[in-house]
Amino acid sequence: MKELIFNLRSHLSSLGLHNGDGSVFDMVVGIIIVCICALISDWICRKMALLALHMHAKIRKRNDEETYYHKKLFSSIAAILPAAVISIVLPVVFEKDSVWWEWGGRFCGIYFIVMVLLSINRLLDFIYHRYIKPKNLNLPINIFFQVCKYILIVIGGILVFSILSGKSPTALLTGVGASAAVISLVFKDSLVGLVAGFQLTANRMVSIGDWITIKKHNADGKVKEITLNTVKVENWDGTTTTLPPAVLLNDSFQNWKSMQDSNKRLVERSININMQTVKFCTTEDLEKYKKNELVRPYILKWEEKRRKKQAADSPNEENDFSYTEDSLTNLMLFMIYIEQYFKKLPFTAKDSGNLVRQLQPDENGLPVQFRFFCKEIRWAEFEMIQSEVFSHIIAVINFFDLSVLQRINTNSITNKK
Fold first, then answer.
1. 3-state secondary structure string, 214-257?
2. How far is CA 139 from CA 29, 201, 209, in A?
3. Buried b (16+ CB within 10 A) or exposed e, 30-59
4. What percentage of the chain's residues is helix, strand, coil (to nearest 5)?
5. DSSP string, 62-102
6. Long-range contacts: 378-384, Cβ < 8 Å, 24+?
7. Long-range Cβ pairs for the range 352-356 (8 Å, 24+)
8. Closest Cα to residue 108, out of 90, 126, 123, 133?
9. Percent of the chain clearing pLDDT 90 (strictly above)
10. Over the chain, what is the mean pLDDT?
11. Of 82, 79, 84, nearest in space to 46 by CA
12. Are 30 and 93 a contacting pair, CB within 8 Å?
C-alpha cells in the first residue's frame, strides 16, 4: 500500500501536478483510502443485512413495527464492520507510532464502542417491542429497559473518555466516585424517577391501562405510558397529561382499577327535601300510597302490627292518640320505595350495600342520600343509567307529597310579575 502511494506521488510529480511535501500528500491519500474502504465495507454490510432482513420478514410475515426495529438493529450491527476494516487498513497506510496511526486507532476504538453500545440499545428496543409490549403485561417494564440504556451511556462515556485521555477506566471510575455529588445533582430527576418507578411497580400502585384521577394536576384518564422520567395519562377529553413519577408518590391520586376488576361502579347522589313537606301519613294518604306495589307490602305489614298493638293495649286517651312513635311519615315511605326500587333494577349489584339515608339537615333542606352499585362500568352507559334513575326519583317525589328544596330564581319571579 505504501508502495502504491509512493508510485502515485511520483506519477503526479512527473506530470507536474504535485511538487509539495510528500508527507502531507501521503497523509491525505492515506485518509482517503481509509475512508473509501470504510464506506465500501459499510455499504456492503448494510445491503447484505437489509437483504437478509427482507427475506426473513417475508418468510415470517412480520408487521411494520417489528420490521422497523429489526431494520434498526441489523443496520447498527452491520455498521460495526467498518471499525474492523479501519483497524486492518491503518497499519498498512500509516507508519506505526505516527500521529495519524495513533489517532486513527483511537477514532476506530471510539467508533467501535459507540456502534456496539448502539447495537445493544437497539437490541433492547427490539426485545421490548417484540416480546414484552405485545403481551400487555400492564407493568412499567419500560423503566428497567431505560435504566439499562442509562447504564450503557455511562459505560460508553467512561470508555470513550478513557481512550481519548489514554488513562485506565479504573482510574476514571475512582474520579467518578469522588464526583458522585455532582453526578447525583445532574441526574437528580432521573434518579428520583427511578426510585419512584420501582416503588410504583413494587407496591402495584398504578399500571399501564389503569384509570386514574389526579385532581391537582387535572389528570383524569387512562395511563398510557410509564417511563423513567414521565407518566403519560390520556384524559377522557383527548388531551394528554405528562407527570413525573414522583407526583404519584408525593400527591394523592385515585385509581379506579378495583372498580374495573369488580365490574361495579358506585353511584352516590343526594336530593335536598323541603322539610316543611314532611308529615305524618293520614288514612287517606296510606290508601293512596298503597296503590304503589313497592310500598304496599310495607304499609300492610305496618297496619297489621298497629292493629295488634292497639288490641293488646288498654284503650285510654293517651294510647288512642292518632299519631304515636311508630306512625308512618311520607318521607319514610319515600325512602322505603327507593330501597325497593334499587332492588328491582336489573343493573344494580344486590350484594354491595345499597343504601338510602338522611344526612344532617341545614339551611338547604334535608339531604337524602342514595347509594347503589351499578354493574355497568362503561362510561356512556353508566351515565345514562344514572340519569334515568335520578330522573325517576325526582319525578316520584311528588307522589309522596314531598318537594325538592331549591334556590328561587329571581329572574323567573320578575318574569311572572
1. EHHHCEEEEEEEECCCCEEEEECCCCEEEECHHHHHHCCCEECH
2. 56, 7, 9
3. beebbeebbeebbeebbeebeeebeeebee
4. 60, 10, 25
5. --HHHHHHHHHHHHHHHTTHHHHHHHHHHHHHS-TTSHHHH
6. 379/236, 382/265
7. 352/264
8. 90
9. 12
10. 75
11. 79
12. yes
pLDDT of residue 21: 43
Question: Average pLDDT, stretch 2-28?
Answer: 48
Span 65-96, pLDDT tens digits? 555 556 677 777 777 777 777 777 666 666 66
Which residues share a beta bridge with 348? Answer: 374
- Choose from 25-29, 45-49, 85-89, 287-291 the range with maximum mean pLDDT: 287-291
* Residue 282: DSSP 8-state: -
Residue 83: how many other CB atoms lie within 10 Å: 22
pLDDT of residue 369: 92
Q: Which of 384, 285, 294 is nearest to 335 (CA)?
A: 294
Whether residue 133 contacts residue 201, with contact meaning beta carbons closer than 8 Å, is answered with no
Does the structure show a pLDDT above 60 at 54?
yes
Strand order in the sheet with 211-214: 240-243, 231-235, 219-226, 211-214, 254-255
| Residues 6 or more apart in contact with residue 216 via CB below 8 angstroms | 251
- DSSP class of residue 369 equals E
Picking from 54, 162, 168, 72, the residue whose alpha carbon sits closest to that of residue 115 is 72
Radius of gyration of the chain (CA): 40
Please enumerate, as own/partner, the contacts of 389-396 that have beta carbons within 8 Å and a separation of 24 or more.
Answer: 389/267, 389/345, 390/269, 390/271, 392/341, 393/271, 393/338, 393/341, 394/271, 396/334, 396/337
Q: Tell me how far apart the alpha carbons of residues 179 and 283 are, in angstroms, rounded to a whole number.
A: 89
Euclidean distance between CA atoms 50 and 56, whole angstroms: 10
Is residue 317 a contact partner of residue 405, using CB atoms and an 8 Å limit? no
The pLDDT, as a whole number, for residue 336 is 93
Residue found by looking up cell 319514610 in the block: 332
Q: Could you give phi then psi for residue 35, rounded to 5 degrees? A: -65, -40
